[in-house]
Amino acid sequence: MQLSANDLYLLSQCAISAALQAGQVIAHFPRETLTVNKKDAGISLASQVVTEVDHLCQAVILQNLLPSCAIFDLALLSEESPDDLLRLEKDFFWCIDPLDGTLPFIEGKHGYAVSIALVSREGVPYIGVIYDPVKNTLYHAIKGGGAFRNGKPWQLSENKQIKPSLHFISDRSFAKHPHYQEVLLQLEQLAKQSNYRDVKVIQQGGAAMNACWVLENSPACYFKFPIAHAGGGGLWDFSASACIFSEMGAFVSDIFGQALDLNRADSTLMNHRGVLYSTDDTLAKQIMDLYHTINQR
Predict the structure, then answer these.
(1) Is the pTM above the cut of 0.90?
(2) Cβ-contact 163, 197 below 8 angstroms
(3) pLDDT at site 157
(4) What class has domain 5-153?
(5) Are 180 and 225 contacting, i.e. CB atoms less than 8 angstroms apart?
(6) Reported confidence tier of residue 164, pLDDT bands at 50, 70, 90
(7) What is the largest CA-CA distance in the chain?
(8) In b/e form, how buried is each residue of 38-62, taking b as 16+ CB within 10 angstroms?
(9) Which CATH number fits domain 166-295: 3.40.605.10, 1.10.8.870, 3.40.190.80, 2.60.120.200?
(10) Which pLDDT tens digit goes with each residue over 42-53?
């Protein structure tokens, strides 16, 4: 099945409406009644926590998107529901993270968002919607139709500072990586060689906001190294931002420079090849070289 430009526009409006409504659930939920539960997921605390807000947001999103599944014969994958594997059979599927960054949400810190994408069976993101309820900022993109910030066309802004800082956006769990200090040292050397002023680390958000913060803080990068065990984030963590990056002309790939595997047949997790987001190709190549250097030791 092919989706026309008009189809994609209509579906993007459905996803935007769903994301905004879920954002209202997040923004107005009484924190004093919030209960936190554990779920069987990856090894990081961020992947293991879940709240009733996650499930309330999912219900709101599904209420908005399920009619489109019937009309356009779409499959659906959401973090808080079992994978029925129809994403491997249908031409397109919704890929949903009802509340990305549950840990910063629990802590009352900026860094959580609603993330919704429409992905083809081949793993290509056609629609990406990310809503930041803290700053009331809506990011979205349509394949071939451009990227938008709060409804206005959005392009990467060149940092005109004589010596800008290099921003390294990172998951908090990466601070426990055995090579974390070496990575920081290598980034500082890279910054010096590239005539950046210094390296500024942002380490508090979920995957969706981390990717958006790359675009908001050029020059910047966000990456996750491959790991042998289950984890590394899910398809729902990266699908929407991958669409936005592609339409912005920014760089997104796995850590080896290949397209993200956004419809992985054997798992919904991304530990096998890692992820790499960057504001430009040169910085991305430097990060890939950094990984190769560290991985050879």
Answers:
(1) yes
(2) yes
(3) 82
(4) alpha beta
(5) no
(6) very high
(7) 54
(8) eeebbebebbebbbebbebbbebbb
(9) 3.40.190.80
(10) 555 555 667 899
